[in-house]
Design a protein that fits this description.
By secondary structure, the chain is mostly helical. The chain folds into two domains: about 50 residues, no CATH class; about 220 residues, MetI-like (MetI-like fold, Orthogonal Bundle). The chain contains 13 helices and no strands. The longest helix has about 35 residues.
């Protein structure tokens, strides 16, 4: 089919716009990565350049040096993301499955109660006192348990589960399957797109989270890497981020450490997201049709 002049102009305009948007998104990433490998002299001489004239990996060596708290923080973040996402997904899916059952008498009441928490909260001080009372203060579990279930994600999965063919579930009940078997062997396998979407939400949230650790944890051994990134940016003395009994080289320029830490904290999510993007789009559209 031959395109008209207006359609060709529209396609050209869309292409130019998308190229500009891609450059606007790729430039900050390239800027941070390139400048993490620059010397201070190169950064001063070329403030907008993304290509290092002289390679300097001292920032990365410092970040991953022996005795660096950042290495431990990186492991804390990885464990938190994996364990937290798994727990979030399990409890969110189980709760959503209950709310999707139209025969459950408390379905509407529970939906209203959890929806209420989306607009009204107890405030930081009451939550802090509750955390201390429960014995979660300065404990790894405080990074996972308080945010175990997201109401928004529960509602997304609830809507998705309600669209599954009821005939399959009813047939399983007739064959003697209980709710647990239906949930594990029928509902979850049919909901891979929605589950991948929710997993991405939770994983990114855990990986980027820093405020809860800053408030509820004062032990550096339990700090996630995002808290250390904040400390590096705010702290001019980098030696405070190295364990006292460790022997390290002379501290590199603070800007190199900041840029290197940004790269190592951002790279894992950038690598994972492309593999989940197709599930993300499908899960969001399908899970938002029915209320």
């Amino acid at each position: 089919m031959k395109l008209t002049l207006g359609e060709k102009a529209f396609d050209v305009g869309n292409t130019i716009l998308l190229i500009v948007l891609c450059m606007a998104m790729l430039y900050p990433i390239s800027f941070v990565f390139g400048r993490s490998l620059m010397t201070d002299l190169d950064r001063a001489a070329h403030p907008f350049s993304i290509f290092p004239m002289h390679l300097d990996t001292s920032g990365y060596r410092y970040v991953f040096s022996s005795g660096s708290y950042i290495v431990n923080a990186y492991m804390i973040t990885i464990v938190r993301t994996l364990v937290g996402t798994l727990c979030n997904l399990l409890f969110t899916a189980a709760f959503a499955f209950v709310l999707s059952n139209k025969e459950y008498p408390l379905r509407n009441a529970l939906t209203m109660i959890i929806s209420f928490t989306m607009w009204f909260g107890g405030g930081l001080i009451p939550v802090f006192l509750l955390i201390k009372t429960l014995g979660l203060y300065n404990h790894f579990a405080v990074l996972i348990l308080p945010g175990l279930i997201s109401v928004w994600n529960v509602l997304i999965l609830r809507n998705f589960f309600m669209q599954l063919p009821r005939g399959i579930i009813e047939s399983a009940r007739i064959d003697g399957a209980n709710d647990l078997v239906i949930f594990l062997r029928i509902v979850l396998p049919l909901s891979s797109a929605a589950l991948a979407t929710i997993s991405l939400f939770y994983a990114v949230g855990h990986w980027n989270s820093w405020f809860d650790a800053m408030i509820y944890i004062n032990d550096k051994d339990l700090w996630p890497v995002q808290v250390f990134l904040r400390e590096i940016i705010n702290n001019t003395n980098l030696n405070n981020l190295i364990q006292s009994d460790a022997v390290v080289e002379v501290s590199p320029p603070a800007q190199s450490v900041v840029m290197a830490t940004i790269v190592v904290t951002t790279l894992p999510i950038l690598c994972v997201y492309p593999f989940l993007q197709r599930f993300f789009v499908k899960g969001m559209t399908v899970g938002s049709i029915k209320g």
